[in-house]
């Protein structure tokens, strides 16, 4: 871990700092050691639905790329840059397809549009190249550098590879963690709208511009061969700025007119009715030219007009709804919800989606093992910009409802779920698009998504999601809005899990002070932040302050939520761990030691809080010298953890470590040694042999072997 002090985890989350014997009281049970569902498989194919029918006017760049990939030299980084819709991804897709069809080389595809997607994709690359579950889990938990893990496995790859980093329009995120590197084992291909050389030191840059007139006309004729002559196609291509995306949408429209087919001349005449606007593509550092959003608007508007003429008014409505989200794969399940009825009849959603697919306005893709719909970013930008103000409130409300239904209502500990990360760009895009009336609801959903990520152990994604959501929400709601403060609090909790204790303390103190002043000391948001803050204080060596704050949290939650609420019981369970043995016996008049039974009565035997209380209870019994009771209790908890999370997760190893202590205390030394040997081996594989967690386990193993009581 990194932070103000260096420490290592023992038993059920206890940390022994170099500056004093302190404790972490939040269990490591927010995730599972299961392989990431849908992750590793997804990097083996482009997340773009389908490659172009024919790649026009890209022969020169394709030859250069083929030569580089086929040279077996490796170590090259190529950057394809150009305005949105110019076909950068199409070139990358075509090369990827050629590489993967030939034997002996692997293609790996990562969406690098945002930090969360980039990190998830690169960890999936590591899994594909042989990283073990323990290593991946440690990287997601922030216990080892994720980029180092990925590139170590890429460097050791048995097969040469092509790695595509697609949609890298914010190249600064590559520097956060040093994600972009070179390797003698493969070639890296980046697509981006940002061409500044400062972003790509040592890389070879290739501009992808609009098509020459003849090739642009061929794109239209590839898609709609019976709509007109080559010269007619060229005139329409000129009107569309010869932008591949606009040409593709136009060709898709023309090819699907059956009853009353349009000619290219008729299509071009309609385009001439709009003068257009000459702008530079947002974010592109390329030659000036027609704004692709304007060109695309001219194209898709004709398609939408045709939908209206055919009585398919639901298709434009669905496209406007999709434009509230990101240009990333959107799970189809979101559209199968009653909330869509605020925008279009739910029974007509299937028909509307098929119309968009037929006209090439959207496509079906797979992400994290989930069927999704995806549309081009320039298309969605242009649709959003053209949406009239009177339609926006209903669209925002519907989008928030759909996303709200997709995020767990009460996020719980569980196996790592890659499907949660698919929702992150959409939650943030909705916050960017939405107006003030829906901003608070959208921010609350994004914060709950951050909680869900946190509770599956993906602390880096949780922090990034909460921090970005808070920044976006603050612009509309102000710094002291309840939802903004709650999101900041979640970011602070994630900082703590990443070991950045000093930053976490500063952020959580600031948030708690504001919440207490605005909402009161016993408000659930205030006590939630207080609970996170006491975890940080314990790891900074301020035990008395932490215990006092924890007791305040218990009192506040009891008052506001009631004694049987899971959050109240969880805070009380933390007292079982934090208090010395003598105080555990007297706390709450002795009632604290009966907490596991109370949790089971209110929540059930398999609830996360019940398992945590039983774990802490076993530790307290061990400190009290009641070793047989502690041994029986922690053995049962260990079995439950393994069933739920798998064998590699930190809380499982922590429980086994405590079990080794109770086994040794009862005289079963050989069993204690076997348990700790397994713990140390698993930590060494996941974290490395010199990580403090591994060293702590090795010290206890040495104590078992020598017959001493463990440290």
Automatic annotation (TrEMBL):
InterPro entries: NLR-like, P-loop_NTPase, TPR-like_helical_dom_sf. Gene3D superfamilies: P-loop containing nucleotide triphosphate hydrolases (3.40.50.300), Tetratricopeptide repeat domain (1.25.40.10). It comes from the Bacteria. Coiled coil: none annotated. Residues 25-47 are annotated as: Disordered. Pfam families: TPR_10, TPR_12. PANTHER family: AAA+ ATPASE DOMAIN-CONTAINING PROTEIN-RELATED (PTHR46082:SF6), ATP/GTP-BINDING PROTEIN-RELATED (PTHR46082). This is Tetratricopeptide repeat protein. The lineage of its organism: Bacteria, Bacillati, Actinomycetota, Actinomycetes, Kitasatosporales.
